[in-house]
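fyi for ur records
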Amino acid sequence: MRLAHNVFFKLKDPTPANVDALVAACHKYLNVQPGIVFFAAGKLCAELTRPVNDLDWHVGLHLVFDGKASHDSYQDDPTHKQFIDENKPTWDKVRVFDSYV
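which gave:
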């Protein structure tokens, strides 16, 4: 069964340059691991402001893995750890939503 891994980053300093830098880092480090069947990373679509829209984030990362084992390997992958080490100081809050799909 596939596993969707969605991560929403709220930045300490959400300037356009900082948002773009985090999106670029996602593309650089987080789409190279085995078992990824879908990857996307981008900034909040601020034009959608319905009451149900959660706007308390700046960058969204969306991955679908071929299964839980690939997700678990991704968590220990050196490039994933490098992404965290390089970017964590810029984060105010990170929320992760995982589901079987």
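The chain has a mean pLDDT of 98. thats all i got for now
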